[in-house]
Structure formats: structure tokens, C-alpha cells
Amino acid sequence: MGQRSLIYSSVARGTVIVAEYSEFTGNFADIALQCLQKLPATNNKFSYNTDGHTFNYLSHNGFTYCVVAVESISRQVAMGFLERIMEDFTKRFDATRAAAAAPNSLNKEFGPKLKEHMEYCVEHQEEINKLAKVKAQVSQVQQVMRANIDQVL
């Protein structure tokens, strides 16, 4: 399969990793877990750079989605990947099952999906970047519209 731009990914509930995937050996999982323990519990996006890699996180509704990428991968691709796995994870696992999942208990079921999404995002980086730009433009238009509505009110 060759060298990948996306190296490691995981889904965590709080600080408990319920699913993860990587084709590579290394301490990526350990560093990702250390960063995870320091993240605020709010719905947000975070990125940390270290040793030529970025550790990217998307926190939403008590779950944190993580991807470790080589530094040359754009932030849009990493965040696009995280949004894809968040959507897939929430569709596959209802709140009760996800909230009760033991550490790494969803690896067998969701690990292959993490791999599939990683491959797709690496192979379609240009498409993901374009989609991110369109989403940013829509967000800007929404902000202007809200400001205009506030002024009218």
C-alpha cells in the first residue's frame, strides 16, 4: 500500500479510545492519547504539530475524533477526514451503544471503516480541499446574512 499521508486515526469517548486504526508502528497512539487527555471537553477542532506530523482532533457531543497526518497534508484534508468519520460513526452507533463501549471494543467493526475513509481522503485530496473551500464560503455568507438580519431587527 505504500507510504500514507494519514497515519493513525481513532474515536474516543472522553479519554477512552473505543476504535482506532493504523497500518504503521510507532508511538502515534500514545501521543494522540496524551493530547486527548489535555483537550477541553467542548465541541471544537484542534491541531497540534510535532516531529513532522499533525495531530488533528474534532470534538463533538462527548466524542473526539483524531487523525495523525504527515505535515504536508493540508488541514482541510485532515478536518474533512474527521468530519467523514464523525458522520459515519454517529450513523452506525446509537448514543446508548457508543456511550457504553469498552476501550477498543469497536475496533473490529469500525477499524475497517477508519481505514476506508483514510484511503479515500488520501486518494481524493483535491476534492476534499475544494469541498472545504465551498463550506468556508457558505459559512461566510451565513455570517453576513446573520449580521444583516440583526441590523434589520
TrEMBL record:
CDD domains with a match to the protein in the record: Longin (cd14824)
Q: How does it sit in the membrane?
A: Single-pass type IV membrane protein
UniProt KW keywords? Membrane
Look up keyword Membrane and say if it applies: yes
The protein's matches in Gene3D superfamilies, at most eight in alphabetical order, are given as: Longin domain (3.30.450.50)
Similarity comment: family membership: Belongs to the synaptobrevin family.
Q: Identify this protein by name.
A: Longin domain-containing protein
Q: Where does this protein come from, organism-wise?
A: Stylosanthes scabra
